[in-house]
Amino acid sequence: MAMEILGENAQRVAKCEVKFNGETGYEIQDGPYKHVVDFRAYTCTCRSWQLKGISCAHAITAMHYKNYEVEPYVDHWYRKDTYLKAYSRFIQPLTSMNLWPTSTLPAIEPPVRTAMPGRPKKKRKKAADEPKKKFGKGTRIGRQMRCSLKTKRDWN
Questions:
Q1: What is the dihedral of CA 84, 90, 91, 93, to 10 degrees?
Q2: What is the pLDDT of residue 6?
Q3: DSSP per-residue string spanning 74-97
Q4: Largest CA-CA distance found in the chain, in angstroms, rounded
Q5: Contact present, 94 and 101 (Cβ < 8 Å)
Q6: 3-state SS assignment for residue 126
């Protein structure tokens, strides 16, 4: 992966122009942008070299100008010997959870719920899989209407 990114950056070198800027510093013109590369600090103002650990196109341009090799400037995490060292030991399997020793510490409890400010909502939020209401408000068609107010005659 690191060599693939390095190859892509090496292809972008043709668009860059080198301007010497001291013993280890170089000013690289990349289209309308200017970047400063410093070999001592392994830095470029585009910050790609610092973030990835892989030389950016500006740093590779300055390396070609000075006839430096590009591979030594790639971070050691991407090298084969570091990879082999990381995976040289075996990971030992663990026993099942019921064989683990029990802890004397108290069990972890959930945090205390605090009421949030503001008036609570009237309607609850329905779940996405919850069915929607099939019928709306009842209609008056087919119903016998009755007045709920008592007339004068009913009071007597």
A1: 160
A2: 82
A3: S-GGGSHHHHHHHTSSPPPPPPPG
A4: 117
A5: no
A6: coil
Alpha-carbon distance of 24 to 20, in angstroms, equals 9
Proportion of the chain above pLDDT 90, given as a percent = 10
Phi, psi of 16 (to 5 degrees): -100, 150
* Euclidean distance between CA atoms 82 and 117, whole angstroms: 54
Task: Supply the DSSP symbol for 123.
Answer: S
Residue 15, pLDDT > 90, answer no
The pLDDT of 85-98, averaged and rounded, is 88
Q: Are 77 and 53 in contact (CB under 8 A)?
A: yes
Tokens of 39: 């070999």
Is the pLDDT at 76 greater than 60, yes or no?
yes
Rounded-to-integer distance, Cα 17 and Cα 36, Å: 12
pLDDT score, position 84: 92
